[in-house]
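Researcher: We plan to redesign the surface later, but first we want a full-length starting point. Tokens attached.
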């Protein structure tokens, strides 16, 4: 049982040793250890503050990036809308120009057709007049072969002139 129960001398020397170690530690080691712990606490606190600041900065950068992306999307949409409008205007302008050209071509074609028609009518009139003169010549030659028929024709013409 001696091993389990300490004697008075052992307790005394353990207490003295403990108090000496406590005195030496409090005198020489306690302040540096406490200063080191305080420095460590301050550095951890500063690191946490820096991390908080960095987190806030990252959130701000993220918000700024989102804002820039939104502005870029809006600008892209504006550019696409402008390009679409410009393409539509160009298309409409091309349609108008093509319609003008078609109208001009139709007008020119109508004028050419009318000129050809007038020319054909004039040519037909000339041919009909020439043919009529030839037919009248042939008929007159037959009718006026004899002097009696010629006298009769002159009498009929005079008679018609007096009535009118």
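Model: Full-length starting sequence:
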């Amino acid at each position: 049982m001696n091993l389990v129960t300490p004697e008075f001398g052992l307790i005394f020397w353990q207490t003295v040793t403990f108090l000496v170690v406590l005195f030496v530690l409090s005198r020489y080691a306690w302040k540096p250890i406490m200063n080191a712990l305080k420095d460590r606490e301050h550095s951890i606190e500063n690191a946490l503050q820096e991390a908080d600041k960095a987190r806030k900065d990252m959130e701000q950068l993220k918000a700024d990036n989102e804002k820039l992306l939104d502005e870029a999307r809006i600008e892209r949409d504006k550019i696409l809308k402008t390009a679409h409008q410009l393409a539509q205007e160009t298309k409409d302008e091309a349609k108008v120009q093509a319609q003008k050209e078609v109208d001009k071509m139709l007008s020119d074609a109508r004028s050419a057709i009318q000129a050809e028609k007038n020319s054909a009518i004039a040519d037909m009139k000339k041919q009909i007049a020439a043919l009529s003169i030839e037919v009248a010549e042939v008929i007159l030659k037959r009718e006026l072969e004899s002097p009696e028929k010629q006298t009769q024709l002159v009498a009929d013409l005079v008679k018609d002139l007096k009535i009118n």
